[in-house]
Amino acid sequence: MNRSRHLTQSRPSADAAAARRQVLKHLPLASAISAVLAGAPAAYAQQKADSSGGLEEVVVTAQKKTERMQDVPVAIVAFGTEKLDELGIQNLDDYVKYLPSVNFSRGDGQGGNGQPGASHVYMRGVVSGVNENHSGSQPSVGTYLDEQPVTTIDGTVDIHVYDIARVEVLEGPQGTLYGASSQAGTIRIITNKPDPTKFAAGYDLSVNNVYHGGVGYGAEGFVNMPLSPIAAIRLVAWDEHAAGFIDNVAGTNASAGIVNGIRTYPTWCEANDCSPLSKGSIGAGSISNKAYLKNDYNTADTYGGRAALKLDLLDNRLTITPTVMGQSVTTDGFFGYDPGVGDLQLVHFGPENSQDSWVQSALTVEGKIADFDIVYAGAYMKREIHSIADYADYSFFYDNRFGSGALWIGNTGIQTDNTGQVTGGNPIMPQELVYTKGHFEKWSHELRMTTPQDLPVKGTVGLFIERQLHNIWEQYIMPGYGFSDPLVNNPNGLANLLSIPTLNNSIWLTDEQRVDRDQAAFAQVTWDITKKLSITGGYRYFKYDNSLAGFYGYSSQYQNFAGFGPGMNGCFEGPTLDGNPCSNLDKSTKGNGHVPLGNITYKFTPDKMIYATYSKGFRPGGVNRNGNLGPYQPDFLENYEIGWKTQWLNHHLRWNGSLFWEVWKDFQFSFLGPNSLTIITNGGAARIKGIESDLEWAVGGGLVLSTNFQLIDPKMTSNYCGVTDPTNGTAVTSYDCSFTYIDPVSHLPVFVQGSGPQAPAGTNLPVAPKFKGNAVARYGFSVMNDWDANLQLAFVYQTEVSPALKTADLQVVGMQPAYGMFDLSGGIEKNGMAITLGIANLTDKRAEYSRFVQSASALQPYIIPAQPRTVTLKFGQKF
After folding, report:
1. DSSP 3-state assignment of 559?
2. Across the chain, how many H-helices and E-strands are there?
3. Across the strands, what pairs with 214?
4. Predicted confidence band at 672 (pLDDT cuts at 50, 70, 90)?
């Protein structure tokens, strides 16, 4: 397996994957189901029963201390080690599937390939749009690996789930304890720690066949080695190949100018003399995807590992746990399809691949001073992303809408007049590619103290500091006919006079350095007024200092020739970052604020309680790189919630749930301005009301049933007009989007007539469905010579989703329809050895996870689908 970074894709020969697929994709579904029903395999599980046949207790650390989940007055969903294994959860897509409050978008254009690791996660419907630009707002959902945050701007790190103790999902604002980017909630991935008391090891081997696609496989293993009575090391590794199921074909989508794998640019040809550029069978002003035809186009290879050392010192009053974890994901192809071409098919015209690698070094120190618990958690994380993407959609639709093809000229015939103005020049092939590099560094430190838990008044206080550095590189290349490597100069590409001076054939460059700094002090105190009644108060004071500097835009010659901006004509100093021609951006903003929490909890019995909570979450403010716009300010989410945690029938039935009302004021709203540059303003307002329910029932006789769901109503409470007041950058929200401002030169009022809102008040917020839920039935029994066997049927369902907020965008992209998917699984286990068989997406439902277009003017939506029906066979042992 080639794990090196690769930028170009060779012409495929006979496709071995396609041959395998022809054999395996017709695997009879009836045979697979028969194998399951015969007692062979497994893949899901609800909470296992305890010795009395009831449900096991779940222990969490959601409030940064160890507690029974049923004692925590917070809406939580938690998957333990066994449940993760039985669910077959290995990545973000898998666990989001079973989390009703969590949704994600992926592949929102801007040259992305929709690959794993590019997902943006949302919770409880708190999302205004999916234009998650690298220069935009911080995420609204925080992600933690153990005690350390791993939240990043460019998408949630898709951590491979293996040898994981728990995945905890904290729903609603977690601003007091978790701070910035936990505005709507927090996802915590807790690893299994080294154990000095015993040796343990295990491995799992799997192979799967994807209907309509190829064959995947994986290998995982761990070993826990005691080094002494006070020390142990735990080593974990994984290697996985995910089969492709999208085909790049010589297909047709006439509305996108594509016929039999050839895309023609009529406006470009009309503006230029195409006859000298005739390319034989391709035709003048056309491009072909012949060199990139491939079945099972979207493969992904993931490998990584984790090493952790644990030292228990001073009679277990001091524990030191250093950990190093890293992962690399290498992909080929594009992870969506074009429904205008066909099911699971698209027509793309250039190399497409990516590599996403990250390493985190972390240190956790837990100690006791008297009866007080002291915890230090620090981490340093590096993430490198490289990708290249076909951007022919962008150039096609911009040519058709704006006649941009007249400006794409090459070296042949180009000259300058006596004023330096570019003249002449022959047109070039109108294709565009996007080469992206992202270098991300994050370090964080947290120090906190927790009082003894047996006191009537107890609490946690702490300090937090974090710095995130993001070097952003996006190079938009017009390589011309006959290129081999898009990063190497091609004489037939964009003219040297028009290119970014430091690069080849490059029409646009974004080369920026973003730095986000956060500091905070926090406290949360609980007073047990009686054995049944408690109140909790929390407070977090935060400061932020964020900056964005570098270059973005066109070359000076292209600006003069085309009349477009921004670019080098706006530079005020020379190069400040490697590769940029000069600097036209240097902005910063800082501020501070606070968020409170209040809670009252009443326990009727140790197994039944209700609570009421007021909490607040936030995102810090940031910089608008666009023009003279000022910074955007922090936005806040207020949450009013009533919840319950109950267990019944001697712990055989557990029902938890909550009712919530959330108010999102002056939220940060991203939209595309001139040249598709992202603008962020404060001005939107929304409210979200909903109900969550999580029910588990150990019926008896080995049968466990569960269901959980979320029903929400997320609506805009103000108009979105898509325009801002030029004097202060404030979003306009008037009923018809008209507004008046004072001209800074004449000091006279200027009235601007509006054309109505782009999204009127009452519009549903995008991405999150109004209803999402699942139901699972699992039956355990014994077979043969005391083998433990199980069968499980799981069903997930969600209603239709609007992928965009603006009415015009929705008309282009279309709605994501409702879907329901079944998973069937079964397995046998004895003495640590397990054989499992699972059929995911049993009915081969084409569920849509995301819908998007490559640019604001494109009329060619793509769909990121759920993986087609997949049959997986897995063998594992634990020692």
Report:
1. helix
2. 9, 42
3. none
4. low
Q: pLDDT > 90: what percent of the chain?
A: 66
Whether the CB-CB separation of 778 and 823 falls below 8 Å is answered with: no
Instruction: Give CA separation, 657 vs 77, 453, 647, 654, in Å.
Output: 10, 25, 12, 10
Burial status of residue 543 (CB atoms within 10 A of its CB: 0-12, 13-18, 19 or more): middle
63-85 pLDDT, tens digit per residue, is 888 899 999 999 999 998 888 98
DSSP code per residue over 663-732: EEEEEEEEEE-GGG-EEEEEEEEEEEEEEEEEEEEEEETTEEEEEEEEEEEEEESS-B-S-B-TTT-PBP
b vs e for 430-464, b when ≥16 Cβ sit within 10 Å of the residue's Cβ?
bbbbbbbebebebbbbbebebbeeeeeebbbebeb
pTM to 2 decimal places? 0.89
SS3 of residue 563 by DSSP: coil
CA 98 to chain CA centroid, nearest Å: 16
pLDDT at position 830 is 93
Residue 124 in 3-state DSSP?
A: coil
Q: How many CB atoms lie within 10 A of CB 381?
A: 23
Q: Which residue has the higher pLDDT, 217 or 421?
A: 217
Of 285, 270, 565, 263, residue with least CA distance to 390:
263
What tokens appear for 5 in the block? 């970074």
Q: What angle do CA 397, 399, 401 make, to 5 degrees?
A: 65
Cβ neighbors of 607 (< 8 A, separation 6 or more) are 70, 646, 647, 648, 651
- pLDDT (tens digit per residue) in 229-277: 999 999 999 999 999 999 999 999 999 999 999 998 876 666 555 554 4
- Flag the least confident range among 43-47, 204-208, 651-655, 833-837: 43-47
- pLDDT of 50 strictly over 80: no
In angstroms, the CA 581 to CA 506 distance is 12
Q: Give me 848's structure tokens.
A: 């849509």
Query: Is residue 812 within a helix (H) or strand (E), and if so which, with residue range?
Result: helix 807-813
C-beta neighbour count of 514 within 10 angstroms: 21
Q: pLDDT tier at 279 (50, 70, 90 boundaries)? A: very low
Q: Is the distance from CB of 727 to CB of 711 less than 8 angstroms?
A: no
Q: SS3 for 587?
A: strand
CA atoms within 13 A on the CB side of 397: 17
Determine the pLDDT at residue 49. Answer: 43
* Count of residues making up the chain: 879
Q: Whole-angstrom Cα distance, residue 496 to residue 691?
A: 59
Residue 638 is inside which H or E element, if any? strand 635-648
